[in-house]
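The authors assume throughout that readers already know how a fold can be written as discrete tokens. In essence, backbone conformation is discretised, so a fold becomes a row of integers matching the chain in length. A single example would do more here than another paragraph of explanation. For illustration, here is how one protein appears when written out as sequence plus structure tokens:

…
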Amino acid sequence: MNGVCGSLSIFSSAQYLVSNDDDYLWWALALPLAGLMFDFMDGKVARWRKTSSLLGQELDSLADLISFGVAPAVLAFVVGLRTYLDTVCLTGFICCGLARLARFNATVALVPKDTAGKARYFEGLPIPSSLGLVAILSYWVRRGWMEGKDGIPGGVITLWGQPGGRGDLHPVSIVFGLWAAAMVSKTLRVPKI
């Protein structure tokens, strides 16, 4: 269901671009949060049943990539981060989320555990933290700070060439780049709650 929520968010974003109906955009913003609820529930059910599998672990990571990697990047694009350099930052965000999840699956057995057998920390920022970015985008939408309305906070800067060309960048795209770097960081240790 986590993957379903993420997929529906992506399609709702696309529907917004086609129809300009704000209801689609609000659904697209809400569905990743619903995905998080399902992500929590599947972990609780697995612990309650005292079962796990490699297939379940892989499915969990793939669903997380859709809901917390691809869907937030598509939402940022829909809200207005659409320049060439913006899309480079958003693609980097998705790819770093993918790398973070792959590393987690490959190294989860190596992370120190507490007495209950749970990992004591996450290496790198967990990908569901991207819901913080979705919350910011929701705030922007509520305020009308998006493409076609009041514009993106911080505007756009031209790093090279003519304005409107490939050298344009919304400075807030850099936040997605920094978030991506935090996800793949080997030195950042986030305590597990």
Notes: Residues 1-109+123-184 form one domain.
